[in-house]
Specification:
The complex is a heterodimer of chains A (about 325) and B (about 300). By secondary structure, chain A is mainly alpha-helical. Chain A contains 14 helices and 4 strands. Chain A is about 70% helix and about 5% strand. Chain A is globular, with a radius of gyration of 19 Å. The N terminus of chain A is likely disordered. Chain B has a single domain, classed as Orthogonal Bundle (ABC transporter involved in vitamin B12 uptake, BtuC). A two-stranded antiparallel ribbon of chain B has the order 1-2. The longest helix of chain B is centred in the first third of the chain and has 32 residues. Classes of the chains: A mainly alpha (about 325), B mainly alpha (about 300). At the A-B interface, α6, α11 and α13 of A face α4, α9 and α11 of B.
């Protein structure tokens, strides 16, 4: 990491600390307001945004705090999504069971893949995580029982308990919002915990942490597994959100976009990943309305961020230590 | 499987490998010397393919079209280096990945605006459209033979340039230890600009030559970028020799996987399962190769830095 990008900053003011949570609380009103004003499409859009934020939060944790540049995160999203497909195909109908299983299975995949890949560093790590994600991609393409290349439609909504299902747009929105809030809270706790500090120490100087007796490899593996499990949760929610799963979810450009969103928002910043996802998805959505050439403004923005705001968008809001 | 089919596929694999080498050579030198990851290398390949296809269509001369494509792409690369890549040397890999990913997004939209969203049909030059009788029972497309010849010629040329000229010596010095080369008075920045332009020329050449036997379309740069990255990682970043060996390996493994694995699986597995697994194994083969090499030799086959 280049100097300065990761510099420590002053603790945020109380207002800045509570503002994101207040905004999340306000979002809970969206389904009610949206139903009144006929904005159902946007309720769905924000729901998708929240789901992607869950995955990005995990990636921000290993990349921003742990310095592990993984280019295969979409693979774990896919594992989560296909776990839901497999369970539904076998007759399962409980959302919680399916999503829970997705978290466990993708966590297990992440633990196995991490055990092999975490022995490499830097660009080699980037490439080997990409390689494993590509293997998962081709595996999904070959699963003809689940539609292969064409994907798999999930036609009946899953049960959320109390007679509600994921087919109920508002209820599903609140469930996603609550899960996302839980994940954000957990991630910001973890970042300031002993574990989080040890991880940042490893990012800054692995040799020193090793010499001080920290189990470097094990700490990285735990973080990598956790991020993989979160990606699996996002994948499972995405499957229920789209009522459809296909290998395209796991394509390498999806992993790259996730990486781009995290860096855009601000690496290792508490709300960086969330901000990056919100800005990237909202901008693409708006640009698509006006032009079919909606990629280049995003590209220009990325170049601008790299040169003008190297600490990401979240970095723009920070007070810097003198 | 009959030996003729196997031989034909192996030739195809070598041809694909040589084209991968043209791409990977520039990529590995840029990476090796300036520690700069340039994802937009695939976009230069796309530029070469598009320009060659359109100029060939308009002008009729294939050789002329290839030369125009190479020259125009080098010009684009010169601007790219001046405006963006040069400012990225001192930054970390992630910043380079993000900025050059931005360049990809812009390049794809620019190509769409100029040449439209649908794929182009790049025609094989008329003189090379027919087959050549290699063996009594093996007709082989003349164009693919030319591809093999050009690829080998460029590889030999690069070998001489890198190993037996003064510029090549500076390039190798920069790749193996840049700070030391700078201390000794090498203007690494200038060497790098040369290498970047050379890499762009090779990428454009590969794009122009691959046009007639692949699809000239938006996204072709991203599709070929991944195998090219796999090649430089297997070969050892910064090593042209490594890129050559790895490119042939990847070309052969990928082509052989696609050609031989499905029939092989059909002969040992139930047909339904074989139909599922064949394409999957073929797609995965290249990545398994990379994972295996990295586990045995974490810095690739021919690490440039001792």
């Amino acid at each position: 990491m280049s100097d300065g990008v990761m510099s420590r900053t002053l603790p945020a003011s109380a207002a800045a600390r509570w503002l994101p949570w207040a905004l999340l609380g306000l979002l809970a009103l969206l389904p009610v307001v949206g139903a009144e004003m006929g904005l159902d499409y946007y309720v769905g859009f924000v729901r998708r945004m929240l789901i992607v934020m869950i995955a990005a939060t995990g990636l921000n944790f290993i990349l921003g705090y742990g310095g592990m540049a993984a280019l295969g995160h979409a693979g774990f999203i896919g594992v989560g999504a296909y776990t839901v497909v497999a369970l539904v195909d076998a007759g399962a109908s409980s959302a919680w069971a399916a999503w829970g299983a997705a978290v466990l299975v993708s966590g297990a995949f992440a633990a196995l893949i991490g055990a092999v890949t975490l022995r490499t560093r830097g660009v080699y790590f980037l490439m080997i995580t990409l390689a494993f994600a590509q293997m998962l991609y081709y595996l999904a393409v070959s699963l003809s029982a689940y539609g292969g290349d064409d994907g798999y439609g999930l036609y009946s909504p899953l049960e959320l308990g109390f007679g509600r299902t994921t087919g109920d747009a508002a209820v599903f929105f609140w469930v996603v919002l609550a899960l996302a809030a839980l994940v954000f809270a957990f991630a910001s706790r973890a970042a300031v915990s002993r574990f989080g500090h040890a991880l940042m120490g490893i990012r800054d100087n692995e040799t020193r942490m090793e010499a001080m007796g920290y189990p470097v490899y094990r700490l990285k593996l735990v973080a990598f597994t956790g991020a993989g499990a979160l990606a699996g949760l996002a994948g499972a929610l995405l499957a229920s959100h789209n009522n459809f799963v296909s290998p395209a979810t796991m394509h390498w450009t999806e992993s790259a976009t996730l990486l781009v969103m995290v860096v855009l928002g601000g690496l290792g910043r508490r709300w960086g990943a969330v901000l990056g996802v919100a800005v990237w998805l909202a901008l693409s959505e708006v640009l698509k309305l006006y032009t079919e050439y909606w990629h280049w403004p995003l590209g220009l923005m990325l170049i601008a961020v790299v040169f003008v705001a190297p600490r990401g968008l979240a970095g723009l809001f920070e007070r810097r230590k003198a | 499987m009959d030996p003729i089919f196997i031989f034909e596929q192996l030739l195809n694999g070598v041809g694909y490998g040589l084209m991968l080498f043209l791409l990977a050579a520039g990529l590995t030198l840029v990476f090796g010397i300036m520690d700069t990851m340039n994802l937009a290398h695939g976009s230069l390949y796309m530029a070469g393919a598009y320009i060659a296809a359109r100029v060939h269509e308009a002008g009729g001369s294939f050789v002329g079209a290839v030369l125009v494509a190479v020259a125009a792409t080098v010009l684009v690369a010169f601007l790219l280096e001046l405006l963006i890549v040069r400012k990225l040397y001192a930054r970390d890999h992630l910043a380079q990945v993000i900025a050059t990913f931005g360049v990809i997004l812009i390049a794809d939209d620019a190509v769409k605006a100029v040449w439209g969203p649908s794929p182009l049909m790049a025609t094989t030059p008329a003189a090379l459209a027919g087959p050549v009788q290699l063996l009594p029972e093996l007709p082989y497309p003349a164009y693919r033979l030319v591809l093999l010849a050009v690829g080998l010629l460029v590889a030999v040329g690069l070998y001489v340039l890198v190993n037996h000229t003064r510029v090549g010596m500076l390039v190798r010095a920069g790749a193996s230890n840049r700070p030391m080369a700078e201390f000794m008075g090498v203007r690494v920045g200038r060497v790098f600009s040369f290498v970047f332009a050379l890499g762009a020329a090779l990428a454009a050449l590969a794009g122009a030559l691959m046009g007639p036997i692949s699809a000239v379309q938006i996204g072709m740069g991203e599709a070929i970028l991944i195998p090219a990255l796999v090649v430089i990682v297997i070969g050892g970043i910064g090593s042209v020799r490594g890129a050559f060996v790895a490119a042939l390996l990847v070309g052969l493994v990928d082509t052989a996987g696609r050609a031989f694995l499905p029939p092989l699986l059909r002969s040992v597995l139930p047909p339904a399962l074989a139909a599922d697994l064949g394409p999957a194994f073929a797609g995965i083969a290249m990545y398994v190769l990379m994972a295996a090499v990295l586990i045995l030799k974490p810095a690739g086959l021919f690490p440039a830095r001792a």
